[in-house]
């Protein structure tokens, strides 16, 4: 496969063809391009060009294109389409994708769009999905699945299955329900291929099937599916009725988004933004953390102000405040990152106490090594052993406390049910800056006997 | 589904049963436990208990358990097994998992283990896989797949397929090859279910199939599979011959590892470590970045030393060095994180120049807002407008430069083919600390006319 490459030339060519309205050429140029790639092209076009292209291309392709577009581009295009046209696109989509798109439409046209969907079963399924929280298994699942009753025989099952399979892009498992629609188990395609036509489903199905509750968090569903290597998982309601199915491709998106979110939080970016977002959006995501940092820095300045007299005498101590603050920040971020990641991957076992002891031993080991280096440097540079010793001993204390705060904070937040990822990045760096500087001056003062 | 929960009670119970050698109870207790959960239990046992359990349980279960264990636990258990026993486990595994385990065995027993595998076809496939780089599509793929020749008819194909499917856990697609084994296209199970028995494969197959080259990087494979929502992708060699297949569950692992790695790098952790690793392993991963930070701090101290005279007169400037350093670090980390993530997700389009201009405008906007706050604070606190102005103006300059460095560095590294993720975290904080402090003093000096 030659991978598709989005080039300026290609975008220009398409823009030219749109301007000169050469529909046949456009159609044949894009015919063999995957819908995900068409979406990448359209993301680069202006609103009118984008709308033109969506209206031109086949709706069984453009429906998939719509699901892959950037949210703002999709919003703009849908704003230029009639309710009937939008309904036509939704007709082609799986219920989960259709529900996601409806969820983004202005409230006043939702009713209209749904009433224009010709396939009433499809419309019903979409409406069912709308009532689930976006941030739950119900919000992820699709209604498309293949299910059979345990009272049927294999022949009836195959017949019914072929019919249902028409509407299901990928058949992973055939789910078996009883007459109350309660999920009982599953059949694999392989089993079905090898079973006798007259066998009862009751006698051949596998009475064990992983499933998730409709209220389960997406991250939990992701953990279950990736731990058990599942490609699809049925979703059941509170009394065990089969209500939908989640496939691994949606879970891959959840994992990516989750990872992106944690990464951004660690870097002090509080909303989901991308490099191509507007300066205003980027500022809104970044400024709050910077203001936090500013407050932290102002706090540090006030603390240092309290030691001003000492500094006139021991100016050298001043010179190392950025070093102390930086080390406190770095150690804090390292410790918290390991804990946050361990919590995300369910790797953290054992008590908080033993975890803290381990982290402080680790910090002590690192601290001693670093302090030895710093002692040597400062002694050689300034020739004053006692001051060098005071600075180095402070560094050890600061690193141990920074390790403690970095470990304790995410564990504490997690216990309280707060996402520990906020504890990495600016939050930990700022608090460690302040604590670090305070500890530094207090210990230095003690050692120097001021 | 009641999710499995690993508890101390369960581990204790199992340890007791192992000590009293109650094999029947152990077997029935673990019979219905998923292999991924059994692996979690065994990770908590000591070497002898773990080996006992692996030897006790059915090998079709323990082979899967082995693939899920922590690497050091698996190594210890395999060290207690004979070549014949190891070969017995490999016999039950898919070729990719078997090859991964063989790759971890000591060189001197590999030959012996392979010769003990009874299924010679399986052994041959495993040996084929051993020659691929772990960090490539070849290193990820399995040999298990269903392929048919384009010259066959549907009936022959179904017969052959049933036979092949015996060895394939999940059939996603049926790959179509010509007589030279060149990948031509695919058949979906659905198509096969609805095609006539006498049709030629040549006439019913889909002549378009995504594939990846055997030398492709795992991250690229992950991007392709998640972009195109694929659950499996065939792997071809340099001349297009079908050599293997990669499934989405392996890709989920790649995505998770990739995200973990970037996150750790941003936090200044240079190797793949987990919270439960030894203090020594954790130190090796963390100390190098801390030493870098120490050098940075020492550099900052030397720079500040050059301004020592100025400080005696304007001590207040000193008080804000931690604030300046922290802001430079935070802005740098934010900017670099957005670029690193954009590069990872292929979101970065356009020239480096326009990217830098945008980032500097953004930094300017943030800088002016933050400087206004700082001006107010310092003026009220110290009552000296000129000094407050000097500090605030410096802050703007520092933030703009920090944004520039944070944006430029990862873009530059990426152009040079170096993983830009190393540019986030300690690397950027440290260099921004130094530049920040230097700029701060120079500008403050200018404004105050010292």
TrEMBL record, chains A, B:
Transmembrane segment boundaries: 287-307, 313-340, 361-381, 387-413, 425-443
Entries under SMART domains matching the protein: CBS, MgtE_N
UniProt-listed Gene3D superfamilies: CBS-domain (3.10.580.10), MgtE N-terminal domain-like (1.25.60.10), SLC41 divalent cation transporters, integral membrane domain (1.10.357.20)
Every CBS domain range: 141-204, 205-261
Membrane topology designation: Multi-pass membrane protein
Entry keyword Transport: yes
UniProt key word Transport: yes
Subcellular location: Cell membrane; Membrane
Keywords (A to Z) from UniProt: CBS domain, Cell membrane, Magnesium, Membrane, Metal-binding, Transmembrane, Transmembrane helix, Transport
Entry similarity comment: Belongs to the SLC41A transporter family.
The protein's assembly and partners: Homodimer.
Function per UniProt: Acts as a magnesium transporter.
Name this polypeptide is given: Magnesium transporter MgtE
Organism of derivation: Maribacter chungangensis
Lineage of source species: Bacteria, Pseudomonadati, Bacteroidota, Flavobacteriia, Flavobacteriales
